[in-house]
């Protein structure tokens, strides 16, 4: 029921639009239709048995009721309508006139109702009378006469056909109601079809329906190009507070004796993982923890651009032995946040990330920092995240509201859990809400360049630290 109500709420504009279109259609049909008038008469049929006692009268009444249904087809028969056309000098066929004539009788009744429709009310009344007269004469002629030569059937006029003053059709109220109801039904069909076919995640609550842990929800900000670092740009905003809540939830989810090495990924590109993990790293460093943020997206790195630091050298250079960690790790700001950019983009990122050098490097970082945060590529397009998931203590998925599809998210999670990765939960990004500031993310692409590098196997070392933090700043 909750899902149905959410579908109706999201599709309220569709229901309103289709209902208005239905009402407009009903009004247009009424305005463009020619008026049709309907004239009617009532005839009473009696059958004479020749008996005057009560039994005879009852027998005649029963016989009349039995015969009425057999008399109805005579009203629109050729023998009646052809004679009316000739008598009235009408320029139409029997079929055309018959389409305008209706005859009916209530069950168990001796009364026959005859009606004729037409655009001219006077003509309709005149034809009704003519058809009723011809029908009466025909019925009398068809029945065998009694012993005295009279017809056993007698037809009497109960109601003469009067000239109608108002049109029978179109019926404005009926047409409007029919159009509105039809539009509403069409709208409901569209809304439910749209709800069944649209598998996008729209709210953070839907994550729990997928039997996945929900770590938090982050808003959508159309000014992300100018202020992607909302934690520092607007530290008191609801969105900045949401990142602090996310920091707390991840800390509880990854509690243990070992230093948490957390990887953030997504099912598909452009779901907000890079900006989310960057703000998460800043908010974590605010708590005076030693934080290292690693850009492990060796295909489309963005952390250096988001933080405004030099990204020409970084993780890839360490893995191929061209640089030492102390040469490329940069201190960001005045706090305890260190950043390791991705460096030059190699043609073999999966091999570098899955190498023993990467495993040793993460082990060294875990000894030197209180928490290590890794920005990894999307899970479904490439295997990089799957390769890294076996080296980290927990994986967090970013899922964009109104963008990420439920099958894609569940497939990505299953891909990692099938290789025994520990998925901590999902954070929903780009949530549009009246009570929190919006937040947005940029595009994602993949490219290759530079030569082929082989990961080095030599032991890796980190420089000495002063006071529990790296001494070098950038």
Secondary structure layout plus pairing:
Layout: H1 2-10, H2 12-32, E1 37-47, H3 54-75, H4 78-88, H5 94-98, E2 101-104, E3 111-118, H6 121-142, E4 153-159, H7 172-197, H8 205-209, E5 214-219, H9 230-233, H10 238-253, E6 261-266, H11 273-286, E7 291-295, H12 303-307, H13 315-319, H14 325-328, E8 330-332, E9 337-340, H15 349-353, H16 356-368, E10 371-375, H17 384-389, E11 394-400, H18 406-417, E12 423-431
Parallel strand pairs: 5-12, 6-10, 6-11, 7-9, 7-10, 11-12
Antiparallel strand pairs: 1-3, 1-4, 2-3, 8-9
Helix pairs in contact: 1-7, 2-7, 4-6, 10-11
Percent helix among the residues?
Answer: 40-55%
Strand fraction equals 15-25%
Count of runs of 4 or more consecutive helical residues: 18
Number of strands: 12
Biggest β-sheet, characterized?
Answer: 8 strands, mixed
- What pattern of helices and strands is seen along the backbone? HHEHHHEEHEHHEHHEHEHHHEEHHEHEHE
Class by alpha and beta content: alpha/beta
Quaternary organisation of the protein chains:
single chain
- Look at the structure and give the mean pLDDT: 83
Q: Tell the overall outline.
A: rod-shaped
The strands making up the biggest β-sheet line up spatially as 5-12-11-6-10-7-9-8
First and last CA, distance: 55 Å
What Rg is obtained from the alpha carbons, in whole angstroms? 42 Å
Which spans of ≥5 residues are poorly predicted at pLDDT below 50?
53-57, 435-460, 463-474
């Amino acid at each position: 029921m909750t899902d149905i109500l959410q579908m109706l709420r999201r599709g309220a504009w569709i229901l309103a639009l289709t209902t208005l279109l239905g009402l407009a259609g009903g009004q247009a049909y009424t305005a463009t239709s020619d008026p049709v008038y309907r004239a009617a008469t009532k005839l009473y049929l009696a059958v004479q048995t020749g008996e005057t006692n009560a039994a005879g009268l009852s027998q005649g009444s029963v016989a009349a009721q039995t015969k009425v249904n057999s008399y109805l087809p005579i009203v629109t028969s050729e023998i009646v309508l052809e004679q009316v056309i000739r008598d009235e000098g009408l320029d139409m066929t029997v079929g055309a006139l018959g389409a305008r004539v209706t005859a009916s009788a209530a069950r168990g009744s001796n009364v026959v109702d005859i009606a004729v429709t037409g655009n001219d009310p006077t003509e309709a009344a005149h034809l009704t009378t003519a058809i009723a007269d011809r029908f009466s004469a025909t019925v009398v002629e068809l029945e065998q006469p009694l012993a005295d030569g009279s017809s056993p059937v007698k037809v009497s006029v109960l109601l003469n056909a009067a000239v109608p003053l108002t049109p029978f059709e179109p019926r404005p109220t009926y047409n409007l109601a029919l159009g509105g109801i039809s539009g509403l039904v069409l709208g409901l069909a569209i809304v439910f079809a749209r709800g069944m076919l649209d598998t996008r995640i729209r709210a953070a609550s839907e994550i729990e329906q997928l039997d996945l842990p929900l770590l938090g929800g982050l808003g959508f900000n159309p000014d992300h190009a100018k202020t992607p670092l909302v934690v520092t740009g607007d530290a008191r905003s609801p969105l900045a507070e949401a990142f602090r809540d996310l920091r707390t939830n991840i800390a509880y989810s990854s509690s243990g004796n070992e230093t948490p090495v957390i990887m953030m990924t997504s099912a598909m590109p452009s779901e907000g993982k890079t900006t989310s993990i960057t703000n998460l790293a800043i908010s974590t460093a605010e708590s005076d923890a030693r934080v290292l943020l690693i850009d492990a997206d060796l295909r489309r790195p963005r952390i250096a651009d988001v933080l405004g630091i030099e990204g020409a050298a970084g993780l890839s250079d360490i893995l191929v032995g061209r640089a030492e960690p102390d040469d490329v790790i940069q201190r960001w700001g005045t706090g305890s946040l260190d950043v390791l950019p991705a460096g030059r983009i190699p043609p073999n990122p999966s091999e570098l990330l899955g190498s023993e050098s990467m495993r040793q490097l993460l082990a060294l970082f875990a000894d030197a920092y209180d928490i290590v945060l890794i920005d990894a590529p999307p899970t479904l397009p490439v295997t990089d995240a799957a390769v890294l998931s076996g080296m980290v203590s927990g994986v967090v998925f970013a899922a964009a509201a109104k963008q990420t599809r439920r099958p894609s998210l569940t497939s990505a999670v299953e891909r990692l859990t099938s290789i025994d990765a520990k998925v901590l939960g999902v954070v929903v990004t780009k949530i549009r809400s009246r009570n929190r500031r919006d937040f947005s993310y940029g595009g994602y692409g993949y490219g290759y360049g530079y030569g082929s590098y082989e990961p080095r196997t030599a032991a890796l070392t980190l420089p000495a630290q002063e006071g529990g933090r790296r001494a070098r700043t950038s």
